[in-house]
Amino acid sequence: MEQPQSPLSRLLICAPLLLSAPLSLAVAEPSGPYVAPMLSYIQADSDRNADNGFGIQAALGQQLSKRWNLELNFNFDILDFENGNGEYKQAGLQLDALYFFKRGELSVYGLVGVGMLSTAIPGDTENNPSANIGLGLMYPISDSVQLRGEVRYRADSEDRIAGESRFDDLLVNLGVVIPFGEKPKPAPKPQPAPAPVVALDSDDDGITDNKDQCPDTTQGRLVDANGCEMDSDNDGIVDALDRCSDTPADRSIDQYGCEKDHDLDGIVDALDQCPNTTPDRTVNPQGCENDSDNDGIVDALDQCDNTAEGIAVDAQGCIADRDGDGILNNVDQCPDSAVDAKVDESGCKLAEIIILKGVNFKTGSAYLTSDSDVELNQIVETMINYPTLIIKVSGYSDNRGPENFNQHLSKKRAQAVVLFLTDRGISEERLQAHGYGSANPIADNNTASGRKENRRVELHILKR
C-alpha cells in the first residue's frame, strides 16, 4: 500500500520550485552581496530526548530584486542528551530563498530552504536531507548594518529512532546583516532648471501672441495650435456654439451646427428617404413611416399590424374574407362559399357524414392511438366554432368474428371518440355514441383493404 507523503517530503518537492522563482524574477541590476552571522537558540523535538541548546549560523546572501534574496546558509549546534550520556553535534549547509513582504525601515520577510544536515552522536554519524521555513525581520542600526531576527521551523529527516521519520526543531536566530563590496554611488543631485522665459499671451488661451493667429479669442474657449477656436467637424460653427460637434463633412446644417431635419421625424435630411413625413408618425431609420408587418399599410393606418408576410390585405391592413364565412382568405380552401353556409375550419361546407380516416385504435381494443389526436382536435375546433352542432358518432367493424363481439367493440370505439371530445370541452349533450358492428359496409369485406375501410368511425350531423 502506498505510504502517505510526510510534510518533509512535500517540503523537499516544493522547495526547489520556490527557490527557482527568485532567479526568474531577478532584476537586471541587483545590489551587492552581504554576510549575516547569527546566534541560534534551538528548541529540540521532544523525540530527540535532548535538551534545548545554542548554535551559530552564517549566511552569504545576494539581493536579487525588490522582493527576493538568495542565501547560502551554514549552521552548527550542539544538543546534550537529556540523560547526560552524550550529545548531538549538527552541522548543515542549505540554500534559502527570502521573500520580502516589505522593505524599508522595518523589513519583513518569509523564507524557505532545503539542504543537508550532518548529525553526529557518540559512535555514529548520519547525513540526511533537511528543510526549513520561517519568518523574519530586519532593522537598520547604521548606514550599512542591519539587525536581523527570525524564527525557523527545521525538518530533519534523521530516522535513528524506531517509528520516527524525522525530527521537527524550532530555531530562533538573532544576528546582523553586513554588506560587502563597493557601495553604490549616490544619484547625482538634480540641477535647478533655468528660469523660464515668459512670453505674452494676451487672450489667455495658452498660445503665445507670437504664434496666435486669433489673438482676441473669448476667454475660456478651446483653441487649436494656431490659437483659433476649435471646429472639430469643420462645419463652420465653432465647438463652443456647435450643438452637434461631429457632423459629417458637406452636410447641410442649421445655425446650431446640426444637420437639418425638415419634417422633424428625427432623421436628418441627408439620410431621409421620405422627407415629408406627416408629423408625429413613427419612422424607420430611412425616415419612412413604419410598416411592421410589411403588408404595404403603414402602422399608423394598419388595424392589423401583425399580418403574416406575403398575405394580401385590405385597405385597413387586415386579411380579407371574400365570402364572409369567417375563414380568412389565406386559409379558406373554399373562398366562394354560399352566404350563411355552415363551413368547417378550412372554409368549406360541412358534410352531413364525415368518415374519420385518421382515427385509429389499438388492435382488438377501443384505445385510440396517438396519431388520432390531429383529426379529432380538428373536430373539437369545428364544434367550438359552431356551438349549435349536434353529432352522432357511429362505430363500425368488418365482418370477421362473432357479430355480438363486433357490435360491442364498435360501440366502445364510438364511446372512446365521444370521451375524447368531452374531455376537451364539448358538451356531452351534443354527442351520441352508437355501435353498428359489421352493418353498412362501404367496401368489400373479402379483401384486406376493404375490411380496413369498413373498420371506421363516422360523424353524422344531426343538427347544424
Count of beta strands: 12
List the quaternary state of the chains: single chain
Q: What is the fold named in CATH at topology level of the domain at 7-179?
A: Porin
Structural class: alpha+beta
Dominant shape: flat
Strand order of the largest sheet: 1-2-3-4-5-6-7-8
Report the end-to-end length measured between terminal Cα atoms.
Answer: 88 Å
- Average of per-residue pLDDT values: 83
Helix tally equals: 4
Unreliable segments of 5+ consecutive residues? 1-30
State the CATH class of the domain at 7-179.
Mainly Beta
Estimated helix fraction: 10-25%
Strand content: 25-35%
Radius of gyration: 51 Å
CATH architecture of the domain at 7-179: Beta Barrel
Reading the helices and strands in chain order gives HEEEEEEEEEHEHEHE
User: How is the biggest beta sheet arranged?
Assistant: 8 strands, antiparallel, barrel
Q: How do the helices and strands line up, and which of them pair or pack?
A:
Blueprint: H1 7-25, E1 33-43, E2 53-63, E3 68-80, E4 87-102, E5 107-121, E6 124-140, E7 146-156, E8 167-179, E9 353-355, H2 373-385, E10 390-395, H3 403-423, E11 431-435, H4 448-454, E12 457-463
Parallel strand pairs: 10-11
Antiparallel strand pairs: 1-2, 1-8, 2-3, 3-4, 4-5, 5-6, 6-7, 7-8, 9-12, 10-12
